[in-house]
Amino acid sequence: MEITLNHYLILSAVLFTIGLIGALTRRHIIIMLVCLEIMLNAANLNLIAFWHFGPNPILLHGPLFTLFTIAIAATEAALGLALVLAIYRHFKTVDLEQVQDLKE
Amino acid sequence: MTVAFYIMAAIAVLGAVMAIALRNVVHAVFSVLLFFSALAGLFILLLAEFIAVVQVLVYIGSVGILMLFAIMLTTKVTGDPTRKLLSRGWAWGGLVSGALLLAFLVPLITQSKSESNSQLSNFNPSVKDLGLTLMDPYFASVGVIALLLTAGLIAAVVAASSASGE
Amino acid sequence: MSLIAKGILQGMAVTAKNFIQSYYKKERLPTVEYPEEKSTVNQFTRNIPFLVYDGEDEIEGMRCTACKLCEKACPPQCIYIIKDTDENDKPIKRPKVFDIDSSVCMSCQLCVEVCPFESIRMDSEFELSNENRFEGLLINRDELLKSNEYYHEIHPIEAQETDDRIAAKIAEAETKKKAREEKARLAAEAKQAAAAMKAAEEAAAETETSATEQAQQSEAKAEAPEDNPETKNT
Amino acid sequence: MPARGYHLSKDELGADILEVAMGPHHPSTHGVFRMDLKLDGETVVDLKPIFGYLHRNHEKLAEDIPYLGCMPFTDRLDYLCGMTNNWAFALSAEQLIEIEIPERAQYIRVICAELTRLINHCLLVGFFINDLGALGTPLLYALREREKILDLFETLSGARMMVNYMRFGGVRCDLPDGWLQECERIVGRFPAFLDEYETLLKDNEIVITRSQNVGVLTQEEATNFSITGPMLRASGVNYDIRKVDKYGIYDRFDFKVPIGAHGDCYDRFMVRMLEMRESIKILKQAIADIPEGPIMGNEPRVFKPDPQETYGRIESPKGELGFYLIADGTTNPYRYKVRPPSFVNLTALRHMCIGHKVADAVIILGSIDIVLGEVDR
Amino acid sequence: MNNFIDYKLIELGQWTVGLFNDYPVVQILVHLLLATLPLTLVFMGAFGFSTWLERKGLARIQNRLGPNRVGIFGLLQPLADGIKMLLKEDIVPDRSDKLFHFLAPVMLMVPAFIAVGFLPLGDGLMALPMDSAILFFFAVGSLNTIAVFMAGWSSRNKYSLLGGMRAVAQMISYEIPLVLSAVAVIMFSGSLNAQEIVASQQIQSWLASGNLVKEFFGQILGWHIFKPWGFAGFIFFFVAALAEANRSPFDLPEADSEIIAGHLTEYSGFKYAIFFMAEYISAFAIAGIATTLFLGGWSGPVIAGLPWFIIKMFSLFAVMIWIRGTLPRLRVDQLMGYAWKFLLPLAILNIFVAGFYYFAEQQFGSLAAFIGGWVIGFGILQTAAKGLSRLNKSPTLDGKRVYQLVE
Lengths: 104, 166, 234, 377, 407
Known about the structure:
- The complex is a heteropentamer.
- Chain A is mostly helical.
- Chain A has helices spanning about 5-25, 30-55, 60-90.
- Chain B has helices spanning about 1-20, 25-45, 50-75, 90-110, 125-135, 140-165.
- In chain B, about 30% of the residues are buried.
- At the A-B interface, helix 1, helix 2 and helix 3 of A face helix 1, helix 2, helix 3, helix 4 and helix 5 of B.
- Strand 6 (about 255-260) of chain D pairs antiparallel with strand 1 of chain E, so a sheet runs across the interface.
């Protein structure tokens, strides 16, 4: 049977929640960043799905908007990993639980 | 077309789940790369060809490798499998996200509109049109994004290198 | 470095020249395909030594007289000689056992320099590998013995020089022997003349006996060097 | 250039120092030679050279062998230049007893020594560029030229590398006819090869960037480490034993000595290239006026020098090669000591490599030009 | 006579597809097979031939004979190597990560074969005729990096990790100049589609003019390499391509003089052969893309189409072999410095020069732009190159060293 918008929406919802579960439950900093990327990608999928099944795809709003989100996601990933490096060097650990003390 | 969608969706879900579940961090990152490539396939199915290419180039090509580098720089080379897996508040986290999932799915399944067929079958969006629209109405936003990218680059370099100073 | 890296391009021009010339210039392709083209050795090459013998019979014509000079001179001590003895075990000048351990020999050619009888020479045969390590590489006397013709074949110039030297030595021995005979004969005649004069004055009897005994002794001396010219050494 | 010899147990990122043992059968060490490197990432923090894998008890062996018997062993010292080793031993042995060396033998000795210098230098340049990573092309050009000279030695002395050619008071056998013409032809064609070699390597941008300012040795450091040979001249010190001692008949030939200015790997490479051109000049003059005559002085029947000690040295392609002999009146030397140039030059390896990258340590070792036969004896 | 072979091949393809008209499902399958199978077989054959070419070429550069024992002129040598590789025992270190140790060669081969699909072999002869073919080529090109990292990391050995990290760093830092130098061409020819890029390098007006000489040169003079920014772009592209394919002056990962065999240390037997096949085929792919972008793809004087493309691709590969026979290797930090501090700024500057050239061509016509472009454009790039190397204090600038010959 023909693929409709709902299929894509359900798929991106599932992917988003998987990303959310990962972000909330896992300890490791880098896995958290990975889950962040998963959530962003799920959102992108949603965007493109709405553009594909949307009223007038000629305007190319979907791909444009996704391009911008991908650019932002890339910068965010770069910055996130730079901070992870800083945290690792300071706290000597990758486990988020021990990164508690705010005071210097 | 429908078979391709289900295969791609299955791979995507599998990649995402493995990314969370696997104990070894490097395996997790490799499975997230699998997830990104499944998504690129989905984008091609949705006829957004350029986005699929950018997804492969940006996500798999550089963000994936960035994470691998980060792992290499932070853990000892072989990684220590002994540390605990779940954060302290994992139960609450699971509960909240489960509730959120229900909040998403329930309205979708009930309405299940049928009329959403796409007019896109005849129109194959070429990269040239995307480039042209990027330039005339959205030129300002392209400039902003360029600024943001350079700022992000410089910030990342400063954050990574200055930390080694103290 | 400028846009077009001049040094690198020059280098590539050199390799291109080599590539092209290797197709038509012999000098640019010195490869000798060994199993097919055999002749990679020239006449001056030296490898494991061998013993030279003249004439047909190996044992008789052997030049070596087991004087063991080469055994002493060999730096890695890889030559082993035992003198030969004939039936009633009187040592004769010939080696019964003459072994060279070719795994130890470093073909340094000192034995050739030391040998007074020009009997040991360097062979240019280099395919000496065989399967068992110990007995196979210990070359015994019979394998070492090779004819003078073989020697002429592998080292023509050197073989010719050696033969000239030997001929010169024999000729010199010849002339010396002749000179000694000459001297002996003259002495004998002078003695006979003196004896004749003495005979005239004193009683003839005791002078005859002394003259004949002297002649017989010089005749024996003349006969002695006849049979073995090689033994004469300077 | 970071500070010399800084010692770190932990590098900045906290990752411990990487301990790497390079050798003994590492592709880039010339023969069996091991370097224990302590690496901080890519930079060499500490280097411990370990050798002795090729020790053959050369000096003790010589004590119960007559003087002449030691001559074939000297070929095995620096197996690339047999002739100069022989000459060094013959020179110092001739100081033990008075032997008058005929003119023709002196000329033959100079010709053979300079031919060996050509072999050694063009081989070294080949290996040096091979360490830079040029996959053997320059090395094979050098080997092609070396083959021609080795054929000359084979016709002259019977063997390509283990020549055992020189005797106390002269040389073993005279030049076969046609040898001089062949030698003249090869020496005549050598400058053309050198020009081709230089265009391939001299101003190649990658060679320049990889080898300039790498492994620098200043003049005082070179003299303190008692470095000799092309390495010393590359650091700017004008000391060539052919000019200082004027042994043999080197004072009759006019030739120059190339001096470098920076003392880095590139200078050592260039000094050797220029030295090859000087050797060709000497060879041309020697071949032109080699006299006829005997090739062996009045050598006594048994070489039995009366008790004394002597030290003879020559300028071998790698540096000052000296033989220290003690004679005790018997036919065997009492003490037979070799002063190998590459062993002494190797002591500067650690000093030069600290602070450089791993790839540079390989090149610096290549530029010192060591042959393990001589280093381990 | 032009594109005669391409049309024949297309007809053959349509004829075979036509055979299965009455079962549509099989027809799709045959269509797909036709697009991919010949390409894979051809490029595996090309891989075999190129190993022979490389060994013979290097041998002849070094004045030796090269393989001539197996088959006439050693032509069966690749077959012999292949069989040897198959017979060799495939050792997998026990502490290594089995799954990814196995996956790495596969992961390296997949992008190599996909990248080959984007090459415009002839008029209409493209395995994957996509709108943004060139961009997809670079995207797939970046997948190699992951495979190399996987190989390095999964064999759990100090040397292979060091080699893997070096290779990944090198590939990433050379990917950017590669893409930027291609951007100049794409900007000029106006589209990402490979066929249109090739068409933009043919002077259409001359081709239609009918007289033979004009038609002959029409196919050549349009190539981008004859334009100033095109020539400079070609140099940057080719240098970056050498680094991407780990070829000669940049073959750092398996620099035997330092770390034994880089990320390939723990591989043996057929996996090692797969690594090599993937490397050679990605080198072919990059050479193919370089011909499409700069050397006019399949357009050529008489036998336009597939023959010209193959000649150009193999000649570029021969240049790679030639370079491998001559040049020594760069050090790691010099390599990185060269990419970021020298190649990248020049590639960006090249895009500006291409832009000015485009507008100059609109204003003063192609001939004046051509001459002016070469004089000014190339001058700017040359001075920029000199300035940059002075900025990086590279020793190649401080002139020749003079050695005094002393008495």
